[in-house]
Amino acid sequence: MNTNETTMLPLDPGPHARGGRGMDRRAVLVLLGSGVAAGALAACGGAQQAEAKSYPVQYSEAEWKRRLTPEQFRILRKAGTERAGSSPLDKEKRKGTFVCAADDHPLFSSTTKFDSHTGWPSFWKPLAGAVGTSTDYAIGVPRTEVHCARCGGHLGHVFDDGPRPTGKRYCMNGAAMKFVPA
Ligand SMILES: [Zn+2]
Questions:
Q1: What are phi and psi of 3, to 5 degrees?
Q2: Which of 58, 81, 104, 140 has its CA 20 to 30 A from that of 65?
Q3: What are the residue numbers of the active site?
Q4: Stated pTM of the model
């Protein structure tokens, strides 16, 4: 987690940053750096880092395609984003655990879920050791990408505008998770 990124995040009004004044400045800085580098960063997205690292659960791309639905594959393996409000997990209010849709790895407890009014399931804290983070440049500005610590599957992003006690907002794709009632 770099400090620049942390200071940028409060400017972001939405779960998947559209950019404010600060974002624009950063985007300009990226463009001034090197056209080639900026292009390469934009193309990387969040999926590449997941494939580059080694995780306890690993399959070939073809095997992941067989194991996941097209929507799950697009999000978990290609760092896609579901349409806001499209997941029934956004409205899930029962007690239980949200697990990774790819490998059932427990990610979030219902006790840390809150309604962020974004249309994406939101939490203020993951379970201990459940997720990893990395910086992605998929939209040209740095964001903190969140992935399953076990399979590396992309789950969403984390922002600094969440509620107490952590102040974090884990903005998750419901399609990347399954809910297991307590
Ligand atoms: Zn997983």
A1: -70, -35
A2: 140
A3: 171
A4: 0.72
